[in-house]
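ZP: hey, is the iron/sulfur cluster complex queued? I don't see it on the tracker
AM: it wasn't, my bad. submitting now with these inputs:
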Amino acid sequence: MNDVAGKRSSEDEGLIFSTQRYSIHDGPGIRTTVFFKGCPLRCRWCSNPESINPYPELIFRAARCDGCGRCIPVCAPLAISKGEGCIQLNRQKCDRCLKCIDACYTEALESTGRYYSLTEVLGECLKDEPFYHNSEGGVTLSGGEPLYQPAFATNLLKACKEHGLHTTLDTSGQVKWEVFERALSYTDLVLYDIKHMDPEAHREGTGVTNELILENLQRIVSGKRNRVWIRVPVITGFNDSPENIKKVADMASRLKVEKVSLLTYHEWGRTKYDAIGREYSLQNMAPPSNETMEALAEKVSSRGIEATIDY
Ligand code: SF4
Ligand code: SF4
């Protein structure tokens, strides 16, 4: 294992795969969203497949490769070979040293995920401070699962609060309670993902059952410290039944959460699967129709909870 692949997140350094400024979908107002790499779930519809593994990864876009071959000699494990018009990449042999990236002028080879210091990430977040104050926005930690890097995520939330910024944590909920507890001290709003109310269906779609997720949500709400919005990615044939959404709405009503956002499944992340060498398992899955989304939103609002339809 080389230095890049063997590195770990710490309280001062985190593995981030993207930072998005002027974000308006990840909490109130104008926000900067910091995307953490690493996730305990394996959702079949994941639109950010590059967020899943907790280490930097090699991206290869064949359409950008002109077959020049400069990357071949720098690859010690012989993972790259000549192909028809472009290279062949054998990911079984690749040890993720990422040395080939420097040899590639066309950006056919790139990495996703880099370690950043707390100072660097905070500096990026502070760039738009005036916009946050004018729009009641702030900083959102998303991913992947931000709390998969608990020390760094908590320190970033804390640093944001020390600078007077509003903080939002977008979480899968699949996190040990002790980890949540520390992070919640510095969190204003929690965006809490609920994928399915049935434990076995949840396992089938995400790789884990939902007990811990539902238990953590109950504890967060009981703590009365944080505002909570539930988010449901609506996936055709998986969780879009009126019965399932009714159960979400009943829980939201019982827990008195502020809002339920229904997120329309889309295929925008699909091309990323090839680039990162993952198989896309939802071939030909249609997004839910507007009528379906509206009917599901109506189910939620009929329980007295604000419902929104988002992407
Ligand atoms: S990252 Fe690039 S150079 Fe390193 S082993 Fe993989 S293909 Fe070879
Ligand atoms: S260096 Fe880049 S453009 Fe050249 S063969 Fe390798 S991947 Fe293709």
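AM: back. The chain has a mean pLDDT of 94.
ZP: great, adding it to the tracker
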